[in-house]
Each structure stands twice: as C-alpha cells, then as structure tokens.
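Batch manifest line 210
LIGAND: N-oxalylglycine
JOB: complex structure
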Amino acid sequence: MRAMPNPLEHPLLSAVVDDLATRGWSQQPLFLPDALARALAAECRRRHAEGELNPAGVGRGASQEVREAIRGDQIQWIDPGQAEPCDRYLELMDTLRLAINRGLFLGLEDFECHFALYPPGAFYLKHLDRFRDDDRRMVSAVLYLNHDWQPTEGGQLRMFLADGVERDVQPHAGSLVVFLSGDIPHEVLPATRERLSLTGWFRRRGNDPF
Ligand code: OGA
Ligand code: MN
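JOB STATUS: finished
ARTIFACT:
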C-alpha cells in the first residue's frame, strides 16, 4: 500500500518554509492555480463594485485612523463561508500555517487576511507589520491578483533586507510573498492602474494577562 502524500510536504510549501528559515522571506511566482487567482480577483472586484471595501486604517483598535498620506488602499476582511474561492485560499493557507509550525516552531495559531485594492496613485509607505501594542503577527503573506501586470505600471512591493539590500516584487497574479512580520520593513510603490491583493498574517497566541 502506498502512503497518501502529506500535503505539508508539498514542494511549494516546503520551499516557503525553507526560505523563511534561511533568510526570513520567500517569493513564489506561481503559487496559485490561475483559475483560483482569477476567481479571487473577480471576487475582489465584485466587492469593490458593491461598495464593500473601505479605506484602510493605520494603527490598531481605538487609535486606528485613516491616513492616506501613509496608506491609500481599500480593504475588506475575509471570513470563512462567504465565497468558495476565499474558502479554498483559507484552507491552503491553513496548510501552510501547519507546515511553517512544523519547520520553524513558531506556534502559529491562526491566519487573518483581507482583500486590498490600491487605486491608481495609492501607496503604502515603509513600515513593519507589527503593532507596538500587539506582537501576535509573526508571518506576513501577500497574494497578488493582477493579470498581465507590466513592470512599467509600478505597484512593486519593496522589501528592505539586511545589509541595505532592496528587493522589489512585481504584483503578478498568483504570486505569493511571505516574510517575517517583525523583521522586514517594506513599502508598496504607487501604480498607474488598480492593484489587487489578498494580504494576511499568521498569528501566534496573545499574551493575555487575564
Ligand atoms: C500591508 C502590505 C504589501 C503589498 O498591507 O501591510 O505591506 O504588497 N502590503 O500589498
Ligand atoms: Mn505591510
């Protein structure tokens, strides 16, 4: 009898885990099947057309505010059971969460993610994906949903790596970028066309004193 393949050992997931362990970030240009990337892009556009996306805030909780001079994207958080392609993505990311836990012992408990739409000209200045008062976010994961993206259209994710090295990623459909949230400052450059993504974070358990 042959053993069932273990989904945690899928080569794409293993590559992400190995990259995170050795250098703190990973880029997988062909992470999602194109049909799923198209279905997710259509879902994001539908939500935008129906007015469901809202200007993203900066900060957390009561101190959160909209500041377009810092970030100009519009977002909507994703919950399970809303749409089939979103559920498939959440399942995939849960498998990645388990693979990361197995390889890096980060104790990741959950994954939260939102659609993000940057209108032409919008950007997100250099930042870290950690809140001063909440360090549960351990690993960031951004999945891009832009078909036929040209480098001349801008919209790159710029990561600031060790030793002053900068690394730009094109927001091509189906491409996934994963990095350690507390370690890698990054920014989103303005684009000449609408830029869609699914941005998420793997979180560990909080240190709730109560
Ligand atoms: C973010 C972010 C990067 C991107 O939402 O925190 O940095 O490429 N997004 O969209
Ligand atoms: Mn970020």
